[in-house]
Amino acid sequence: MATGQVHFILGAGHGTLAVMSDFEDPDQATLGDLELQDRQALRRVAGLSTELQDVTEVEYRQVRLERVILAGVWMSGTLQAAERSLRELGLLAETAGSEVLDGVIQRRSTPDPATYLGSGKARELRQLVVASGADTVICDGELTPGQLRQLEEVVKVKVVDRTWLILDIFAQHARSREGKAQVSLAQMQYLLPRLRGWGESLSRQAGGRAGGATGGVGTRGPGETKIETDRRRIRSQMTKLRRELKEMEKARTTQRASRRGSALPSVAIAGYTNAGKSSLLNQLTGAGVLVENALFATLDPTIRRTKTPSGREITMADTVGFVRHLPHELIEAFRSTLEEVKDADLIVHVVDGSDESPETQIAAVREVLSEIEALEVPELIVINKADVADPDVIASLLRREPHAVVVSARTGQGIAELLQAIEDDLPTGLTQVSLTVPYSRGDLISRCHSQGEVVMLEHGDAGSTLVARVPAALAAELEDAAL
Ligand SMILES: Nc1nc2c(ncn2[C@@H]2O[C@H](COP(=O)(O)OP(=O)(O)OP(=O)(O)O)[C@@H](O)[C@H]2O)c(=O)[nH]1
Ligand SMILES: [Mg+2]
To answer: Residue 158: pLDDT above 80?
Structure first.
């Protein structure tokens, strides 16, 4: 394809993401099902939110992502990869509640420093916007504040980037107090340097829209002073959020420490968004957490206890999904949540075997794992959705990733093997001790027999001398009691 050519890949109405519910029998409703119904009830209704007038800039960005055109720059790799990236952007947009009208990809060595797409292509995009009646352009990358502003000047509708879109989805899906605070912090961090650009084009845009709007963005000309006030307000809110998050993090660390104290080995289910992590947790533990054919359905970790085939108790955590180019602001803000993954004894890395390119999902997940310093944790690859995946794709994945189990969280295929593989991969968790305890602590000796392995036991004058391999918590008690 010649440099600079615009490539259309998504026709009008293409690929509307059906929001599939796995929920059929109302009597079987789990908490996750109820949450899903709730979420669907709250989903944006196209056209409705345009009536909102008195909204802040942040809300304005959120409520008006409705009829969108996608724009990407194809810099390297195959055309298929570029198209896949834009299709994924389309899914993200639909998850955020937008209707995707069209998509364009421009072949360029680098994005245009001024307008992201080249200036000629940006003007063509403007025509497409007019012809289709789009109200937003979503670019497949992270744009500088200047690029956002200058592209808005050309296309004359709002321009947002992939980062903001992902932040928007997270904002819609956040449930817990901590999750909400984390997302707000990430949004503000992203927004702060971009406030000015948006303010300027907003005032111009609003002028041309719904003339005579009373109050709201249309009449609130964000002059320099307003922007300064906004910045100050955002900064002080960020400070407050950081403080609150620190408090919540303390509580979480204490919880985690107490779980550690109970010495149960921990498994974290991680992986690409929509790979089936929550379905797998449900299948393995009957947790009943929310499952949805949408990106980033899960934001808060859910932790459940379960047993391995030999009866060993373990904890399993469902975690937030990853995506290519996960915004750095989000990784930062979710760092404490992601610790769940970093501190695990084993990462069960779920990949969607029916995806177009599961190996790029694996690579994207490992990139995030490396960013949160979790690469040292042992990893077990779980190729999910075997019921619908192409057997050839699974076979080639297994060649690349020999340490893997093939399962279907939907049909239960491979789940028993998975549990066995988890058991085999977990550290034994036993610590060797060699000490003498008084006879009065016969209880400790019997716990050594029941919870670990006694290697040697001798009864001397002072007490029982023993060498044993026991769980860490028991080892600590033994040390305390030792003569
Ligand atoms: N066919 C098939 N579909 C599956 C399987 N496992 C999960 N799904 C579907 O895949 C979609 C996503 O499943 P989730 O369990 O919500 O995925 P997740 O990884 O938790 O996704 P996020 O929390 O959004 O990152 C849902 O529509 C599930 O019904 C499977 O083994 N086979
Ligand atoms: Mg999930």
So the answer is: yes
d(CA 440, CA 431): 23
- pLDDT of the residue at 333: 80
Instruction: State the Cα–Cα distance between residues 405 and 396, nearest whole angstrom.
Output: 13
Which of 377, 361, 385 has the alpha carbon at shortest distance from 280?
A: 385
Q: Order of strands across the sheet with 136-139?
A: 6-10, 99-107, 67-74, 136-139, 158-161
CA pair distance 260, 339, nearest whole angstrom:
13
Q: Using CA atoms of 464, 469, 475, 481 in order, give the dihedral in degrees to the nearest 10.
A: 0
CB of 426 within 6 A of ligand 1: the answer is: no
- Say which residue the tokens 């003007």 belong to: 123
Of 319, 291, 294, 292, nearest in space to 304 by CA: 319
413 in a domain, yes or no?
A: yes
**Residue of 92, 94, 279 best suited for mutating to test ligand 1, as the one with most atoms within 8 Å of CB:** 279
> Which token pair is 258?
């107490």
In this structure, the answer to whether residues 191 and 210 fall within a common structural domain is: yes
Other C-beta atoms within 10 Å of 33: how many? 20
In a domain, 125, yes or no: yes
pTM above 0.85, yes or no: no
Q: What angle do CA 69, 70, 72 make, to 5 degrees?
A: 150
Q: How many structural domains is the chain composed of?
A: 3
Nearest CA to ligand 1 atom 30: 385
Q: Picking from 59-73, 75-89, 266-280, which range would have the lowest pLDDT averaged per residue?
A: 59-73
